[in-house]
Write the structure tokens for this entry.
Amino acid sequence: MLKWVFVAVIIFSVLILAPASAIAAAGIDRNARAIDARTLLAHIRKLASDEFEGRSPSSKGEALTVQYVTDQFRAAGCTPGNPDGTFVQTVPLMSYRTQPAGPLTVSRGDRTIDMKLADDFVAWTRRPSDRVALDGDLVFVGYGVTAPEFNWNDLDGMDLKGKILVMLVNDPPLPDEKLFGGRAMTYYGRWPYKFEQAARAGAAGCFVIHESGPAGYPWEVVKNSWGGESFTFLGPDNNESTCPVEGWITTPQAELLFAMAGTTYSDAKAAALKADFAPMALGCRVKFDATNSIRRVESRNIVAKIEGSDARLKNEIVVFSAHWDHLGVGAAVDGDTIYNGAVDNATGVAGMLELAKAYGKMGRKPKRSLLFLLPTAEERGLLGSAYYGENPLYPLERTVANINMDGLNVLGRTKDVTVVGFGKSTLDDVTVEAARQQGRIVKPDPEPEKGSYYRSDHFNLAKVGVPALYLGSGIEFIGKPADFGTQKRKEYTSVRYHKPSDEVQPDWDLSGAVEDLQLVFHIGLQVANTPAIPTWREGDEFKARRDAMMQKR
């Protein structure tokens, strides 16, 4: 008995003499350890089950997802994230389903190419019209980029009004690292930008040529993502400012098209890499007819909050984001029609629930308030986060940071962690230090050419000025061959990404996901408790917007 009393005295003495920060850190670590692989997997299994039917917006799957996630946030001790007292933000959308009446026909003289829907092309209109028709001349406009800062304008030199444009995917891959981000894709390479460019030029239609390498995904992803029901916003102009017809065509069809025009696809691509490139009339005529089924729908962003503990700083917000939606029910692949979206993004939603649980267990909550934002319709063009960015529930000048998760690591622990867009903000410094305390290192995106910084929900907060951190899985797996991570990335993209096969797999190892979530926990806590707020680096594309915003504080 005396021995235990002696031990107790020693322990008590250590606690008395230890710095308060060390004791607090021990408590923080205990809370981070509340993030549990078994609970994480249970959430993923539920959200990615066939019962949830692929979690498409405006579906049974949405209703089940909102109910399940809301219940879990309540159980974690969160309060409603919407100031109106609810856990949702209503997002008005327009559903559309464009059904071509036949092939996309390209003709020149007596020669004709008939492109088959889904196999060769996909096309749609975001205008609320019952029918859409194309009949016009085809013009190749290179990458479709207008970038005055690089003295680059692919649309200059021809009146493109009423024309049907063909564009290359991505942005110009030039050897000069100072132009278009070098190997990394800029926003100029994203397909939304290309369709926006076509609309600004007054074009009647626009088709982007798909290539798996530059696009970052195979043709099946294009077909599955745009081949069925889609969603968009219905703007005050009734979407008259959108391009009348938008779509994609495959590389093999592009090769046939350019051959018909009297050149080659490779020669056209080479010409598009020159700064003096001008639009090329291809001497071809395009015809296309389709019906369009439209309906007004409402979807929901899910929002939950943990109130900050500091009387002043609780009015500032740290936003965590992870989209809840996937593609729903679609075309059968190997007999399966449910696109479950287990990795993309049931893992991210499950991670948010575990983070909320960990923060909820803290006796003294972080100084700033935490908002868990689960946007809808990310897979349909980042729509839910775009709506939040334009209709924030809390002032953007008091939103100090966004931390985004889109697909967690399901393959085991890594020595590293990836920051997509590394170097953009001071959030990187917080991440590097938190990773160091885990004995890990931070690496930039190993595939910057995919433009991932512009392909997830954080982008819509970044572009309105909020410093945003997008964490990805590491690639240096402990106890695995050096190329294991890279090969698994490629395998997922080709075999499971946006396919029904994105389901929970028996060989998953969530130890890496848990460690990544613990990292996010510490990053979020540091941002929430530190008086200084994150900032964009000098020269970053989003800094000017933030600087102007912060004058309101």
